[in-house]
Design brief:
It is built from no helices and five strands. With about 100 residues, it is mainly β. The N terminus is likely disordered.
């Protein structure tokens, strides 16, 4: 499993493709370094470690991640979307998972 200590200076939690993000709240993206949605704004932070890569994206530009994808060295991957509900609650919902090459 990846741990946030692998990425000094980032306040991003350690997760892997099999993680449950239950109880994980909003994740602030302090200094996005890439723009992946084509609108010209920086919206994404990519972290890499020995075992995996995490891609955190803020599509609505509110400063908080809306989507995260994890790809592990062994090919396992998973993606989650952060959903805010009208009653004020929020949750990370898994939108995809699998194994690259399978």
């Amino acid at each position: 499993m990846i741990t946030s200590s692998e990425f000094p200076g980032l306040d991003i939690p350690g997760i892997d493709a099999s993680s449950s993000l239950d109880g994980l709240g909003a994740i602030e993206l302090h200094h996005p370094t890439q723009g992946i949605d084509g609108d010209g704004s920086l919206d994404t932070v990519t972290t890499t470690g020995d075992d995996a890569m995490q891609v955190w994206t803020d599509y609505d530009h509110d400063g908080f991640a809306d989507h995260v994808t994890v790809v592990e060295k062994d090919g396992d991957y998973a993606a989650w979307e952060f959903q805010r509900h009208p009653d004020g609650t929020s949750e990370w919902v898994r939108t995809d998972r699998g194994r690259i090459g399978s």
